[in-house]
Amino acid sequence: MSHAPAVAIDSSQYSGRAFARLTGIGAALGVVGLGAALALSGDTQQFYFSWLVAYLYFLSIALGGLFFVLILTVTRAGWGVALRRVVENVMATLPIFALLFVPIWLGRHELYEWTRPEVAAHSPILQGKSPYLNEGFFFARAIFYFVVWSGFATYFSTQSQKQDENGDERISARLRGLAPVGIMLFALTTTFATIDWLMCLEPEWYSTMFGVYFFSGSVVAILSVTLLLVNFAYAQGALRGVVTVEHLQDVAKLLFGFTIFWAYIAFSQYFLIWYANIPEETIYYMKRQVGSWKSAGMFLAFGHFLVPFFFLMPRAVKRRSGLLVAIATWLLMMHFLDLHWCVMPVLHHDGIQLGATDVAAFCAVGGVFLAALGWVSSRRALVPLRDPRLPESLSFENV
Amino acid sequence: MGLVPAMFPEGEYFGLLAEYDSPKALFHACEQVRDAGYRKWDAHSPFPIHGIESAMGLRRSRLPYVTLVCGLTGAIGGMALQLWANAIGYPMVISGKPFFNWQPYVPITFELGVLLAALSTVVGMFAFNKLPMHFHPLFGADRFEKVTDDGFFISVEAWDPKFDAAATERLLTSTGATRIQLVKRREGAAS
Amino acid sequence: MMEIADNVSHEPVSGRAPLILGDPDFRSITEAVARPAESPTPLVWWLLFLPALGMLGILGISVGWLVWEGIGVWGLNQPVGWAFDITNFVFWIGIGHAGTLISAVLFLFRQKWRTSINRAAEAMTIFAVMCALLFPGIHIGRPWLAYWMAPLPNQMSTWPGFRSPLLWDFFAVSTYGTVSALFWYIGLIPDLATMRDRAKTQARRYAYGFFALGWRGSARNWQHYETAYLILAGLATPLVLSVHSIVSMDFAVAQLPGWHTTIFPPYFVAGAIFSGFAMVVTLMVITRKALGLENIVTLFHFDRMARIMLVTGSIVGYAYSMEFFIAWFSQNPYEQFTFINRAFGPYWWAYWTMISCNVLSPQVFWFKKARTSMVIHFIVSIFINIGMWFERFTIIVTSLHRDFLPSSWGMFYPTMWDFGLLIGSFGLFFTMFLLFVRFLPVVAAAEVKSVLPAANPHASDEHVAPALAGHLAPKGAY
After folding, report:
1. Which residues 161-180 of A have a C-beta within 8 angstroms of C?
2. B38 contacts in C (CB within 8 Å)?
3. Do the chains contact at C209 and B134, CB–CB below 8 Å?
4. Percent above pLDDT 70 for chain C
5. In a shared domain, residues B75 and B123
6. Which end of chain C is more exposed for a tag (fewer CB within 10 A), N or C?
């Protein structure tokens, strides 16, 4: 079997050192955030809810990274190889989410009412669900999710790094064969994790679409993060001429498409529940139309769909990295609003109440995520140097 | 447009037609003709050649704007029609929902937007291309039927300001054309 | 270029396998594609066409009798007000979606292999939509009043009920039919010009020439053409998602257990693509053999189509599991009963046909041997379509025949006229497809030529990437 030769890129363009700064920033942010969060943790319920939102936010990005890498692998995509390593680095942070899950487990009685025996005792519905909704199985499932996610993320990123050293083409073939299995397991674990951690905040409500909804948001998130990370690398003097405007245009096209996909999924779920008007289903949206939740929801529809739809339509916009940074940042803010709107109405019944605890928890989780990302990135090249399809990716041009 | 003979300026000749034997040859020839300053000319091939628009110095097509405007018109018109018809024109209470709501009108709004966008794209493309044009002088040229098979051509029209039968022919020969012919204008049906 | 006998047994890890075998030049593509329509009709064609025509006749009789006597000739009753009619409607619309996916979505994803099959697939879409539109048209009881669905000002001052999913269907499917037909026709123009320029008789030249609109391969024309093609592809993609989503809403906006599920829209779309690809495979296995197009529609193409069937079949399987899990999880006794009734009630045989055909049979495509075997493709694709027909039948009939009130429960038994229309719709479909194969170029010759390596004006010029010095240009890369 053959070995792909090393492609002669200037080492300053691919050195992971460019991301070393993130480790420090992340660590500082994490410490400050954690400290503040603990200081504010007098209101324990608020603390756990804020932590949950922040956790799901960064988890969705890391999971999106796993999905993006698996899809690039299974479709044998040529265009994306140049930026695949950046995405792999995001996915490689998945193992720390097991650690970050600890507060959610500790706070489960405050977050999930079904874990409280006195609630379950009065609800025949919850009793009926107990074969699935019991703490032991809940814990075991969480372990399973982390094992699957960390397993695939670590394997794919370490194998890719190994290929940097020996250029072994068999690695590509092996990963290609494993990727479909990864995607199937990803679909199942992500769906059930969404059900467990997000949908079961309201354990008497249900929607078959919910896993797909979370997934659609996470793809928008990872594409936005990819744009930001590439531009961050540019600012550090790396990846110039390696990841070009052609690649960014493709990421922007995907972002355009998946913004529409998110809107389609979100609307489908909302619309079908609205139309049939069945109280045990509509309660979900009724809660989210009280007080300022209503305007938050409308703003979400406007900001998460209409704005990026028209903004990303022109070809010229998709080729200007400054504009792409702007829309990526905007969409990441919208993604936060999305998750906030999903989670917080369970705690704050009357309206949106963004507070210091939300910011602190966001900084805590985000800081740890960034630190991990920086640490992982600085240890390897920013480009899969001896991937057999790298030359194809580097010379890629849009029509 | 249509079955009416193509409207071209007066003159006995349509122009020069040069034949090439590969897309690569045609591509480089186009660059040279463009650089020589010709404006009323065209390249012909059985399939679109990647990048030939820049080799010919063409501006991007304006068709997307047509699509956007008509698509939005369709969508807004569709929403307006439904709101008017079911809330004002003949209001009916259906499953207790309010008269004015936007949710059930989304599907048709979307469909009408896409329909008008697609129709306008097709009509716009034909308009920009001045098609149908069943009768064109080039159809009378020798071997031009190869253009839909495996032939590659450049045609330079006689009323281009820089056109000169001898000079233009010399230029085309220098670009590597395998055959050059002077094409007469012909009224009526292509042979 | 790599000299290999086939393009699928060894998948390169760098570079790309050739899409068209035999290292052809442009002329041989023209010959291969145009020749069948110019040759005398082969016997095989008549052997297929006459039975198709016969089935079309059955359609005519069934429709005629239905319009004369009324919906009572079918097995419909209370509670089962929809059965074969809507099953067939959703079945045919679903099949149509593969054509648009191949034309539009694969185009947007730059999958060049689509050029060998997109013409046939788009034609299939149009014929499938024709078959589909038949059913809502005739099932409304007074088909001569079908125009009432259009928002035409009238003396009664009434307007269509825009809030009804059945009306969204009317707009969605008409838009879909129109856009698909336009997309197909636009794609045909350069190839019609080819047929025109090769025509040996005056009649043929005028026939092809009229519809070729005077196309002369002008680069300026190609530019607007390519822009239009890209726009239409960009429009057709959300369109195809929306059409089957709207069709799924016929069921999902109801309150019926088994129908009211939020995942229906993407689930139906995935199922539609699944069954559509299966039909493309069924048709192309025969067509490529009959017309000698094995070097253009190659094993690589079938390998890719098999993978897409595996993906969409898995999405369908995911949706089945989600429905099943949430039905239990919801603790709603009506939902739970519906799913138990599907698997173990009077229509259990339909349900298990669906599961074995949709979930089990495509699993063979995990194996490369299966993905590149014409026999397996033909058999499995037919199973998939049988399974998908039964899926719609299961969804519609099992939820209707036993819902909330046991005293309202009933059974549905099809009559010969139900079968007549089902068989007849296949007759319409195959008749149209055979006519298409006989008279029109089955492969998009111009598009295939444009993806040959020789079509690249920079072939053997090395495009040097900005960051690199002295890299190797991959051979045969696209």
Report:
1. 169, 172-173, 180
2. none
3. yes
4. 95
5. yes
6. N
Query: Is B28 inside any structural domain?
Result: yes
Q: What is the pLDDT of residues C330-352, one digit of tens each?
A: 999 999 999 999 999 999 999 99
Q: Assess whether B24 and B117 both reside in one domain.
A: no
Same domain, B146 and B123: no
Report the gap between the CA of C186 and the closest CA in chain B (Å): 8
Note whether A250 contacts C: Cβ–Cβ < 8 A. Answer: no
User: What is the least distance, in Å, from the CA of B107 to any CA of chain A?
Assistant: 11
pLDDT band, residue C202 (cuts 50/70/90):
very high
In a domain, B7, yes or no: no
Model confidence over A245-300: pLDDT tens digits? 999 999 999 999 999 999 999 999 999 999 999 999 999 999 999 999 999 999 99
User: What is residue C476's predicted lDDT score, i.e. its pLDDT?
Assistant: 33
Residues B100 and B74 in one domain: yes
End position of a domain, from candidates B128, B154, B169: B128
Q: Measuring CA to CA, which residue among B157, B163, B127 is closest to residue B141?
A: B157
Assign residue B156 the CATH number of its domain. 3.30.70
Q: Which domain holds residue B32?
A: 13-58+139-184
What's the pLDDT score for residue C206? Answer: 93
How confident is the model over C441-475, as pLDDT tens digits?
999 999 999 999 888 888 765 444 444 433 333 33
Q: How far B178 CA lies from chain A's nearest CA (Å)?
A: 29
Question: What does the angle CA B167 – CA B173 – CA B174 come to, to the nearest 5 degrees?
Answer: 90
Mean pLDDT to the nearest integer, B116-145? 93
Q: Which of residues 84-143 of B touch C (CB under 8 A)?
A: 85-86, 89-90, 92, 94, 97, 104-105, 107-108, 110-112, 114-115, 117-119, 121-122, 124-126, 128-129, 131-136, 138-139
pLDDT of res. B184: 86
> Do B146 and B121 belong together in one domain?
no
CB distance C262–A191 less than 8 Å? no
In a domain, B67, yes or no: yes
Residue B77 and residue B169 in one domain: no
Tally of domains in chain B: 2
> Which residues, in sequence order, are bridge partners of residue B181?
B17
B107 with B71, same domain: the answer is yes
Where in chain A are the domains? 15-394
One domain, residues B77 and B123? yes
Closest CA–CA distance from residue B50 to any residue of chain A (Å): 7
Q: What is the DSSP string of chain B?
A: -BTSPP---S-SEEEEEEEESSHHHHHHHHHHHHHTT--SEEEE-SSPPTTHHHHHTPPPPSHHHHHHHHHHHHHHHHHHHHHHIIIIIS----TT--SS-SGGGHHHHHHHHHHHHHHHHHHHHHHHHT--B---GGGGSTTGGGGGTT-EEEEEETTSTT--HHHHHHHHHHTT-SEEEEEEP--S---
Domain assignment present for B2: no
